[in-house]
Write a sequence for this structure.
DNA sequence: TCTGGGGTCCTAGGACCC
DNA sequence: TCTGGGGTCCTAGGACCC
């Protein structure tokens, strides 16, 4: 009996009992640097780094080409350090507007294969190809996708093929640049289990520490550990990591997920901490303008404003406020941000200042709500606010 | 190697309502 | 009138990712 037939039968059987899917994770290789190289072909094959301010040695590198990596350059390295390490390094100013627009084209290329595309960040997406081919055509589809991205956008990518998001994501990391890697459920034990837990997507330094306290060092140990103990120690994260270590991930590819942005923010770090209120407010104003502009482009407004302050000693605080009506315009946003800033600033020198607007809604919907149910909501919120203020006053009186 | 800016999701406590 | 349980919203902070 021919193999293909067996495979197809297997697939049908699998599909009937557990709705097995075929998921791709597509990851653009050193995205910003690749965009710059495609716009300046003379830079191809050369060590190239992208930084916010190439003229400042203290600016940090955001991305760099593989040629730069080969010379020991890495993301977050200071421009000054990098130039010392590679004398012939080309450092270019980052141009986020261009990257965002190329990113949209990237997703469009993926959508020309299937609508089941979920963008997850500026340079990566999940694609569910179950309906357009399934497992036995997956490699072919991945190859065509990779070629299409090279042909139309001149961008290299790595693709992971797997039955779920987590494994697809892990697979795309295995071969860079321009890799195509399949990771089956049955490969989990031999491939993933020997790795130290820190290599796993979703495990950072803090979780690594907690896992080590439980005697867990490898993904295999995590997979076979008592899940109840993990949950007791790590909460929901424990259950999620335990599932992943066993190669399981039930999250589906949801094209709508990226549609509703959760927040828009802007922050800036100054090399020498600032303690002058006027200068801090000027910075705040710049941040507010940036956020407001981007909200306008997205056609969104938000209910919650958050101001973030990081002091010279790296301690950090956030102060946020949820409003009765969503805002987005520069003036109101600035006014609320200043109020939040003044409430939380200790007058200590500030290293980082940030403004974020969240609980976003479409502007039209916000207007609709206003004519509809918002009056009610507004009245309720105001009432709650008054009560809160009253209580506060009472408490202060008492003390 | 302690250095950025953009995000998402989770948790926990307090307030409030039913 | 007192007491309790359950659910939701708000806020602050933590962890993680690219």
């Amino acid at each position: 009996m021919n193999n293909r037939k067996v495979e197809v039968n297997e697939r049908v059987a699998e599909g009937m009992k557990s709705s097995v899917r075929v998921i791709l994770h597509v990851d653009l290789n050193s995205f910003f640097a690749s965009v710059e190289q495609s716009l300046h072909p003379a830079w191809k094959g050369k060590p190239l780094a992208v930084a916010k301010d190439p003229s400042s040695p203290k600016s940090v590198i955001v991305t760099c080409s593989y040629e730069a990596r080969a010379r020991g350059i890495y993301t977050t390295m200071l421009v000054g350090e990098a130039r010392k390490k590679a004398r012939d390094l080309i450092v270019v100013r980052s141009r986020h507007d261009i990257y965002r627009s190329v990113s949209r084209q990237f997703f469009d290329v993926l959508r020309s294969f299937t609508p089941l595309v979920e963008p997850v960040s500026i340079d990566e997406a999940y694609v569910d190809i179950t309906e357009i081919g399934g497992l036995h055509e997956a490699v072919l589809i991945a190859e065509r996708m990779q070629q299409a991205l090279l042909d139309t956008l001149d961008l290299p990518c790595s693709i992971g093929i797997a039955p779920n998001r987590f494994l697809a994501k892990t697979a795309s990391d295995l071969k860079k640049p321009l890799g195509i890697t399949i990771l089956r459920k049955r490969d989990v034990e031999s491939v993933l289990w020997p790795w130290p837990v820190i290599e796993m997507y979703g495990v950072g330094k803090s979780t690594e520490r907690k896992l080590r306290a439980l005697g867990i060092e490898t993904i295999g140990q995590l997979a076979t550990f008592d899940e109840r103990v993990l949950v007791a120690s790590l909460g929901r994260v424990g259950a999620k990591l335990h599932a992943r270590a066993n190669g399981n991930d039930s999250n589906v590819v949801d094209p709508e997920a990226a549609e509703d942005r959760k927040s828009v923010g802007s922050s800036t770090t100054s090399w020498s901490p600032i303690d002058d209120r006027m200068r801090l407010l000027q910075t705040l104003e710049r941040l507010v303008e940036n956020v407001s502009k981007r909200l306008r482009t997205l056609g969104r407004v938000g209910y919650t404003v958050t101001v973030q302050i990081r002091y010279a000693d790296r301690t950090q605080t956030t102060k946020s406020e949820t409003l009765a009506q969503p805002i987005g315009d520069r003036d109101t946003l600035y006014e609320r941000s200043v109020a939040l800033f003044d409430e939380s600033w200790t007058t200590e020198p500030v290293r980082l200042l940030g403004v974020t607007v969240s609980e976003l809604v479409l502007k039209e919907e916000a207007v609709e709500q206003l004519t509809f149910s918002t009056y009610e909501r507004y009245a309720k919120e105001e009432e709650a606010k008054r009560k809160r203020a009253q209580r506060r006053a009472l408490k202060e009186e008492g003390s």
